[in-house]
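Forgive a beginner's question, but would it be possible to get any protein sequence you like and the tokens describing how it folds?
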Amino acid sequence: MAFSQHNSKLSAYKDPVEIHRVRKFFDNIITGFFVFTFGILWYFSTKYHVRSNDYSIVIHDVFGKEITMNDLRTEFKTKEVTRSYISEYQKRFPQYNFSIKLEFPEIKRKSMFRILKTYK
């Protein structure tokens, strides 16, 4: 009996539960590595999607010079309203050309870029 007990400890087959734990441990490490890597890549590769907050109408005369007309509303918050006013103005004043001018806000850099910039 002592030989069979001693022989089971020297078996060529490994414990399946132990193999499963080790495999699960390495799977978790590899998954965590890829999640972390793709998270970092996503963070540094995303671009800002900046929408214009202010729309204004620019008026040009027949010679192409930009002019101002005091009686017309030229500042708007939405693009649809600006287009509507442009079509109305074109009907009322056919001798002028109207176009949309977009005012973009200043893009602020991410804080991580500022931190990395100070260490260079």
The first strand starts at residue 54 and ends at 60. Strands lie at 54-60, 66-67, 75-76, 97-103. The chain has two domains: 2-45, 54-103.
